[in-house]
Amino acid sequence: MARTRKVVWKMPVSSEQFRDGPVVSHRRGRVTMSYDFQAPDGEYAWESLIFLGVAALEFTPNGALTKDQVASRDELVELDGSAWRPGVRVIDTELRHFRIAFKALGCYDLLALDFVPPPAGPPLPRPLLAQRAEGA
After folding, report:
1. Do residues 116 and 50 make contact, with C-beta atoms less than 8 angstroms apart?
2. Rounded to the nearest 5°, which phi and psi values hold at 43?
3. According to the model, what pLDDT value does residue 127 have?
4. For the chain, what is the radius of gyration of the CA atoms?
5. Domain map of the chain by residue range?
6. How far is CA 20 from each of CA 66, 78, 114, rounded to the nearest angstrom?
């Protein structure tokens, strides 16, 4: 199967604007990827992508990125026909290969069942973001 690349979500800001993010946390098949950015009022706010049914997570630092990984900067892409998926010992055939890269940091590859983008409303302050990540 030939590998195809499909953009499934684009960051609303450039990762160059991060002050502290991204912050990645995981527990029992769930990965939360949070990033900060400067809101219109000048304060920094946080948003999160949540990946569900995660079977594998891989990080590649900035200095080791391939051209294909760099091409996913500031956007979440889904890779169909990925060579990585068959190499992971997981039986679930519904797993999707997601990839996102951040400027000056690196690239995350995930095998997951699905992802939940940040809400379309205003960004969350840090304490509420932590509650959302924990499923509260």
Report:
1. yes
2. -80, 160
3. 45
4. 15
5. 4-133
6. 24, 26, 26
What the block records as the tokens of 59 is 């990080």
What pLDDT does residue 59 have? 95
pLDDT < 70 stretches in the chain: 1-2, 85-92, 121-136
* Nearest alpha-carbon partner for 133 in 37, 24, 42: 24
Residue 37 pLDDT: 86
In the prediction, which pLDDT does 90 show? Answer: 63
Q: What are phi and psi of 45, to 5 degrees?
A: -125, 170
Could you write out the three-class secondary structure of 70-121? HCCECEEEEEECCCHHHHCCCCCCCCEEEEEEECCCEEEEEEECEEECCCCC
